[in-house]
Design a protein that fits this description.
The protein is built from seven helices and 13 strands. The protein is α+β, with helices and mostly antiparallel strands and 289 residues long.
Length: 289
C-alpha cells in the first residue's frame, strides 16, 4: 500500500476548510479545534462510566461475518461501567460503535456544540465508538457515504483511509460495505493480497481532542493503540453519484444481502468472499501460483 500522512492543521476557518478539504474531498486532521468544549476537559473513560454506567451497550468483536448475523447485530451486551472496567483492565476485542448518545444519555449533548464547517450536520445522529487496546474495525465505508467529522477522546488511535477510486485494489466484498475480513491492514501480506500494493491511501494517528474529517464514501480502518473512544458527526453526501449510492445501499443492497443470507446461508457469505478475490485479480490481470 502507498500511504501518505493526512494533512494536519492546528485549527481552521470554515472558508479554509471548504476550499482546501471539502471541495477537493481530501481528509484532514484538526488538532486543536474543540478545546472550548466541556467534552474536551471532561470526557474520558471514567466520566463515561460515571454518566452512563447503568446503560446496556452493544458490543462487537473481530469475528468474520456469519450468515446468522443480522445487519449490525451485536455479538454481546454489557453494562457500560463493566465494559469500561474491562477496557482498563486488559486488552479486549470488544468494541462499541454507532451508539447514539442523544438517545442514551441526553445530558452528554450539553458538553459539545455542532461546529460550523459549512456543511449541515445531522444533529440527531452523534455516535460514539469505543475500543480496547489493539481492537480494530474491518476496512469499510459507511452505508450513507456521508461526510464524517470524527472527534477523538482518551487514548490513541491509528486510522487508514482510501477513497472510492481504490475499490479495484481493496478486495471489496460484493453486496456489502467491507473488504475481505482476513486482511490485516496494519501489516498486510502482499503475497496473499498483491492488489493492495497498488492501493493509494492515507494514514494518521489521533489523540485526545483531534478531529478527523473523512470525505464522502471514504474507506476507513481504525485500530485502537490504547483504550479510548471517539464521537462522529455527519453531513449528507453532496455529490449526486454518492447520494445515489447511498439510496441504493439503504433501500436495496442491505435488504438483498439479508435475504440471500436467509436463503443460502453460509454458502452466500463464502461465495462473496471468493468473488472478492476473483474480481480483484481478474480486473488487474493477476494470476496466483
Amino acid at each position: 500500500m502507498q500511504l501518505q500522512e493526512i494533512d494536519r492543521v492546528e485549527t481552521i476557518t470554515k472558508e479554509e476548510f471548504l476550499k482546501r478539504y471539502f471541495k477537493p474531498q481530501k481528509p484532514v486532521v484538526i488538532e486543536r479545534f474543540i478545546e472550548d468544549w466541556k467534552a474536551f476537559h471532561k470526557w474520558d473513560l471514567d466520566y463515561m462510566a460515571e454518566v452512563a454506567g447503568d446503560k446496556t451497550v452493544p458490543l462487537y468483536d473481530n469475528r468474520p461475518v456469519d450468515y446468522k448475523d443480522g445487519f449490525n447485530e451485536p455479538h454481546a451486551t454489557m453494562k457500560m461501567r463493566d465494559y469500561i472496567a474491562l477496557l482498563k483492565k486488559e486488552p479486549t476485542k470488544y468494541r462499541i460503535f454507532l451508539w447514539n448518545i442523544l438517545k442514551e444519555v441526553p445530558q452528554l449533548q450539553k458538553d459539545f456544540t455542532y461546529p460550523d464547517f459549512g456543511l449541515k450536520l445531522l444533529k440527531g445522529l452523534p455516535m460514539l465508538f469505543f475500543g480496547g487496546k489493539d481492537s480494530y474495525t474491518f476496512m469499510h465505508y459507511d452505508i450513507d457515504l456521508a461526510n464524517i467529522f470524527h472527534f477523538h477522546f482518551h487514548g490513541k488511535k491509528e486510522v487508514i483511509l482510501f477513497d472510492q477510486k481504490q475499490n479495484d485494489y481493496l478486495y471489496k466484498i460484493p453486496h456489502s460495505l467491507i473488504t475481505r475480513e482476513d486482511i490485516n491492514f496494519a501489516d498486510p501480506d502482499f503475497k496473499k493480497w498483491p492488489a493492495l500494493r497498488k492501493a493509494e491511501g492515507y494514514i494518521t494517528h489521533l489523540e485526545h481532542g483531534n478531529v478527523l474529517y473523512m470525505p464522502e464514501g471514504y474507506w476507513h480502518y481504525m485500530r485502537y493503540l490504547t483504550p479510548g473512544f471517539s464521537m462522529s458527526l455527519r453531513a449528507l453526501a453532496r455529490n449526486p453519484k454518492n447520494l445515489g449510492k447511498a439510496v441504493y445501499n439503504i433501500f436495496f443492497m442491505r435488504h438483498y444481502d439479508n435475504l440471500m443470507r436467509r436463503l443460502k446461508g453460509q454458502s452466500w457469505i463464502d461465495a462473496k468472499n471468493e468473488k472478492a478475490i476473483e474480481r480483484t485479480h481478474r480486473k488487474l490481470g493477476i494470476t496466483l501460483q
